[in-house]
Amino acid sequence: MSLAAARVPLLPRLMARTAAGAAVLLAAILAGVILGETPLPWETVRAAFANNLWQAGLPVDPIDQGIIWAYRVPRTLVAAACGAGLALAGVVLQALVRNALADPYLLGVSAGASTGAVAVTILGVGGGALGISGGAFLGATLAFGLVAALARAAGGGPAQMVLAGIAGSQLFNALTSFFIAKSANAEQARGIMFWLLGNLSGVRWPDVTLAVPVAVAGFLACLWHARALDAFAFGQDAAAALGIPVRRVRIVLIGAVTLMTATMVSLVGSIGFVGLVIPHAARFLVGPRHGRLVPVAAIAGAVFLIAADVASRMLIPGQVVPIGVVTALVGAPGFALILIRGRARG
Amino acid sequence: MRLSAHNAGWSVRGREVVAAVDLEIGPGETFGLIGPNGSGKSTLLRLLAGIAPRAKGEVRLDDRPLHRIPRREIAQHIAFVEQQADTAEALSVRDAVELGRTPWLSPLTPFSSTDAEIVEAALTAVGMAHMAARIWSTLSGGERQRVHIARALAQHPRLLLLDEPTNHLDIHHQLTLLRLVSNLPVTVVIALHDLNQAMGCDRLGVMEGGRLAAVGPPAEVLTPERLAAIFRVGASRLTDPADGATLFRFHCIED
């Protein structure tokens, strides 16, 4: 924050930024609803919204109305929540682990969530009481606990954390494959493999009521701890010396990351690259301070995943490409660009 | 503000790094910690800052045990400058110094113009105001060290713990830093390697093998016998004709 910025009163500045962020998010959601295999005209979308939100009773083709309200709106909202959640998970993990490579994918959290979800679906672990999301949360917690313990035993540095994460994700991915090979029939196996690559086709309204509150809660937790995340820049001792209750902050934030990752994986499969690339892109835009980084990363993640979902529907006519494939196809070159330009700037 | 250690110690994997340290540091005092490499100076500072996990014994701030005081409140009283704290984030100098305001801020008391003034003053005090916009990775070792000191000053502590702050600094900045520190109206505990610089402290503590071997005024503590036994150097005392100050000239002693 520069002195010039400090002279503008805080509240109006904050409100202007919040409004700008909300506008960007809203525009992306609308675009996600309008665009698709069959683009729908804006008037139809507006009428369908009006009919469903305040019973406007406007004449809309019931099929269009169905596509918009039962299919595209929940799908877009869940894409936004997932993108925001995964990007925030990446921001938090990169700050706490102090490694630019940290993200829920690399640290094994996504893999653990997948294993948990698959164990519930195929093996019937929990006897129906657990649910897929619950299984994913247990798996994610277990995986992160294991990775953290291994990293600690190996000396506890940022590099050890990433190495432990790689070992953890390999283990949990192998477990997932093992469960599938052992117990799933061919049809189930195909469905699960497709889900694992990331898939938003099955998303309906009940998923929205899970994904959006989790993403909003995770966002607020991260924003509340923005200064604490800043304080980790020089390591956890420095954070402690700056008055951060390190252990409590870590538990809260890692809990939030695990919850967000598990929820998103259980709904749409494990989507890579968002958690890694979006935080770096956001840092590139607004710098490393978390007061700005957290909201920008959340919005960028939401917009990115909506765009990726639209692309996955439109790329090959009549066929949906797994969204994980799209995020990696766009993300990898995007990341390369950030690396190169970041070097030029630094 | 009085800081005291009572039988303080810290072990890692069964090895005692610091053991049985009893120490009392009075308000306004400048206390120097000296000792050879690996004698436990940094660990003792971490214990005094209250950030060493699983510490033995007790460190008290006035009469309150540190482990009973919330971290945030400790950080409002004690600032700690570690050796070699580094970051890969593209923080600017000003960003890094603003971190010093962390214990005084919360989501409901955000960074204000007063905080900005404190940060500016801290930057000026270490001569880094003209570099406020520079990115961390472009700074030299000495500039980074001065930013860390500025960060600690911005914390407005009553007690400043410094771990070899003159490392990486050229001689001009070493002397300005020591003058800055000794002019601050706060208690200072400073680990130093240069024994001539240590002569400027009010009292010295000599660390050897994790224990506090001696405590007292510099002239009493730095005897030729002790320098030979602990630092393994011979020393001649010289007197500066300009102001009558005592300094040491060191030479090797054969083992």
User: Could you tell me the mean pLDDT of chain A?
Assistant: 87
Q: Count of DSSP E strands of chain A?
A: 0
Poorly predicted sequence stretches spanning 5 or more consecutive residues of chain B: none
The portion of residues forming beta strands of chain A comes to under 5%
Radius of gyration of chain B: 19 Å
- List the total number of helices of chain A: 15
Order of helices and strands of chain A: HHHHHHHHHHHHHHH
Largest sheet of chain B: 6 strands, mixed
How does this structure look, described?
- The complex is a heterodimer of chains A (about 350) and B (about 260).
- Chain A has about 350 residues and is an all-alpha fold.
- Helix content of chain A is about 80%, strand content about 0%.
- Chain A contains 15 helices and no strands.
- In chain A, helix 2 packs across helix 4, helix 6 crosses helix 7 (about 160-185) and helix 6 (about 130-155) packs across helix 12.
- By secondary structure, chain B is α/β, with parallel strands linked by helices.
- Chain B contains nine helices and twelve strands.
- Chain B is globular.
- In chain B, the strands form three sheets. Chain B has a six-stranded mixed sheet with strand order 6-7-8-3-9-10, with helices on both faces. Chain B has a four-stranded antiparallel sheet with strand order 2-1-4-5.
- The interface between A and B is large, with 32 and 44 residues.
